[in-house]
Specification:
Elements: H1 13-27, H2 41-53, E1 61-62, E2 68-69, H3 71-82, E3 91-101, E4 104-115, E5 119-131, E6 137-140, E7 155-161, E8 168-169, E9 178-187, H4 195-207, H5 222-228, E10 235-241, H6 242-252, E11 258-267, H7 275-278, E12 280-283, H8 286-291, E13 301-304, H9 306-310, H10 312-316, E14 320-328, E15 334-344, E16 352-354, H11 358-368, E17 375-381, E18 387-393, H12 401-404, H13 414-423, E19 432-435, E20 438-441, E21 444-447, E22 455-458, H14 459-465, H15 468-474, H16 479-489, H17 513-519, H18 530-542, E23 551-553, H19 568-583, E24 597-605, E25 613-621, E26 624-630, H20 640-650
Parallel strand pairs: 1-6, 8-16
Antiparallel strand pairs: 1-2, 3-4, 4-5, 5-6, 7-14, 9-10, 9-11, 12-13, 14-15, 16-23, 17-18, 17-26, 19-22, 20-21, 24-25, 25-26
Helix pairs in contact: 1-2, 11-20, 13-16, 13-19, 14-19, 15-17
Length: about 650
């Protein structure tokens, strides 16, 4: 009997290729068409998936003459042709079914690149496939598959054109930052006689500039940079405004090796001009590039801090992009061919219009210029609440204390306490209130500056002379929430929208009798910013609260509503007392300042040591209300009041 054996199974090569293609497509997340196994669609879809993934092993490739090509070589050539776009392969979409003529199938494919800034560049290409003798479809490869203008060896490259950065405008609609003359100070290595001495002399000269450069010029790496530079190179040290350069020109001009180049740079009117509010514009830093690799490249100008940082995208606009073709030269270096494949024009930025007034800001900056301690001055127009100036010192650096400080207001808060007491009928201008040397509440003793006492005097005198013990004794008449209610009527603790960060205050409420006594003259847990106190002062002068305004365009979306009218009798009495602070009280140093000045001094303890105090002055003249703050300034009459005087004397009169 003959034995019968089953025939061995021999895998079909075509089925093996199709299975491999299917595996590759599934791995790439591509949906394979539903046509038959013998059609060109599967091979085409496998090719499109392999183009994106960089793996074409599942696809047969031939050149236009029919010669077979290694799939790995084609994948490598696609990557090379893609050049600077290789890291972000295009999205590839088959448009319709292949058209088959004899043994050639032709399909239109949309190639869509996503360029930096989410810019879309899309175009159609034809992909051809040939049906081979082995009954398999193979892709006919040539560089024009990627783009019709590409040939072997070409590379796609990106060129980026930065749009014009828009200006930050003042209240007259004029740019605050404009091209201003500077002198670029540098060193030419082959002219240096003694590098160590040169660094020392330059350092001493830069430190002599007034107002001081903040931050200072760091020369630590200058010797290394000089050593690495070409002998005749210009090694830049710093760019100085002309006025700063002129101060030290006699000291540095003849130093061996120094070189100077006159130039113009976009700058604010002065180095310190509202700098903490406006922010700065600088070359992109490492953290900018790391945080936003799709937005910035080396050399871009980027806003940092203040309005420049917050509204950087609006101000900088959109960069222009051009896709060009490059080709290796004889030395292998890529050179442009002059062929442009795509262009997006740069979009100019949109300006910001602020309420800042150049003359008032200069007066504010000038008033702080001689102050070595951290300080701030905010000025508002009473009639409409616009911020005319926001200065921070010393120098141009530092945080925006003017808007964001959270510090006790000291006796400037007697303005708020007095309003609350007047509203409740607890005091009158001429009603007697005892000003004792000390006043004790729940075992806590309160005293006046320099331990003065006035005895039983009219309330207006207690206010003008800033008697702490009188206000501590009156605190129970405000009740647990009376002080906070008075503060809120002046805008404190409000939800303000200025288009930038600002602290609107936190007023003490409730608390023990000792806390209420302390809060009545601006101690305890009450905290404010200079902007908040300037807003409250303007509300007293105006008769109702208006939220301070800094930005006109774009206008903030949700500004705080205007406050209710203050009680006329109360606010008129308060204004009378604030005038008497100047004529007979603690602000009498300002009584010979031109115009009718109103105000209130303040000294605020900020820790458990009574000798550690901040200094304040709030007030107004004409249509300008303002607040002055000096961190650790001691007595307000020695620091804050002189700053107020400098400001008022420099302030343009109307």
């Amino acid at each position: 009997m003959a034995l019968s054996y089953p025939r061995p199974h021999r895998p079909n090569p075509a089925r093996r290729l199709a299975a491999a293609a299917t595996t590759a497509l599934l791995a790439a997340g591509v949906l394979v068409g539903c046509s038959g196994d013998d059609g060109p669609q599967r091979t085409l879809d496998a090719f499109l998936a392999g183009w994106r993934s960089g793996d074409l092993q599942a696809v047969g490739m031939i050149d236009p003459l029919g010669a077979k090509l290694p799939s790995a070589d084609v994948a490598r050539e696609i990557k090379d042709l893609s050049g600077e776009l290789a890291a972000t392969p295009p999205t590839l979409t088959r448009r319709g079914e292949p058209k088959i003529t004899k043994d050639i199938a032709t399909t239109t494919v949309q190639v869509e690149w996503t360029l930096p800034g989410q810019t879309r560049w899309a175009y159609d290409r034809e992909v051809r496939l040939a049906h081979g003798d082995d009954d398999q479809w193979q892709v006919i490869w040539e560089p024009t598959v990627v783009h019709e203008q590409l040939t072997k060896g070409d590379r796609l490259a990106l060129r980026r054109d930065v749009g014009a950065r828009a200006a930050v405008l003042d209240n007259a609609g004029k740019p605050l930052v404009t091209p201003r003359p500077v002198v670029r100070v540098g060193v030419q290595p082959n002219g240096v006689a003694d590098l160590k001495k040169l660094v020392k002399d330059l350092d001493a000269a830069f430190k002599a500039i007034r107002p001081a450069l903040v931050p200072g010029v760091d020369l630590a790496d200058l010797p290394e940079r000089v050593a690495k530079a070409e002998p005749g190179a210009f090694v830049e040290v710093v760019s100085l405004r002309e006025e700063a350069y002129r101060q030290i020109k006699p000291r540095i001009y003849d130093l061996p090796g120094t070189k100077f180049i006159s130039d113009k740079i976009d700058l604010a009117p002065t180095r310190e001009f509202a700098r903490a509010v406006l922010g700065t514009v600088d070359p992109a830093q490492a953290d900018d590039l790391a945080a936003h690799p799709d937005r910035y490249v080396v050399g871009d100008l980027v806003g940092h801090g203040g309005l420049q940082g917050r509204y950087d995208e609006r101000l900088r606009g959109g960069p222009g992009l051009t896709v060009v073709v490059e080709r290796p030269a004889e030395d292998g270096k890529l050179e442009p061919t002059g062929t442009e494949l795509f262009r997006r024009e740069p979009q100019p930025g949109q300006p910001l219009k602020t309420t800042l007034d150049v003359a008032v800001q200069n007066a504010a900056d000038g008033a702080l210029r001689g102050e070595s301690r951290r300080s701030a001055l905010v000025a508002l127009r009473i009639s409409d609440g616009t911020v005319l100036a926001a200065a921070n010192g010393p120098g141009p650096a530092g945080e925006n204390l003017a808007f964001n400080a959270q510090v006790p207001p000291g006796s400037t808060f007697k303005m708020v306490s007095a309003l609350g007491l007047l509203d409740r009928g607890a005091v009158t201008l001429d009603g007697p209130v005892d000003c004792k040397k000390t006043f004790t509440v729940d075992g806590r003793s309160f005293k006046n500056s320099d331990n003065f006492e006035l005895g039983s005097v009219p309330f207006r005198t207690d206010f003008a002379k800033s008697c702490n013990t009188a206000f501590a004794a009156l605190a129970p008449k405000l009740g647990g929430d009376g002080l906070a209610a008075a503060g809120r009527s002046l805008g404190l603790e409000g939800q303000w929208d200025l288009g930038t960060d600002a602290f609107t205050g936190k007023v003490s409420t409730g608390g023990s009798p000792a806390e209420q006594a302390a809060a009545s003259f601006g101690q305890g847990t009450t905290l404010v910013s200079p902007l908040a106190m300037a807003g409250a002062t303007a509300a007293v002068a105006r008769g109702h609260f208006e939220q301070p305004k800094l930005l006109i365009d774009p206008a903030p979306a949700t500004p705080a509503p205007a406050g209710e009218q203050l009680k006329p009798a109360s606010v008129e009495a308060l204004r009378t007392m604030m005038r008497e602070v100047i004529t007979t009280g603690t602000g009498s140093a300002l009584k010979d300042v031109p115009g009718e000045v109103y105000g209130k001094t303040g000294t605020a303890e900020y820790d458990n040591n009574p000798a550690h105090t901040h200094a304040w002055f709030v007030g107004w003249r004409g249509d300008v209300a303002f607040a002055v703050f000096v961190e650790r300034g001691g007595a307000s009459t020695a620091s804050a009041v002189p700053i107020a005087e400098r400001f008022l004397r420099a302030l343009p009169t109307t």
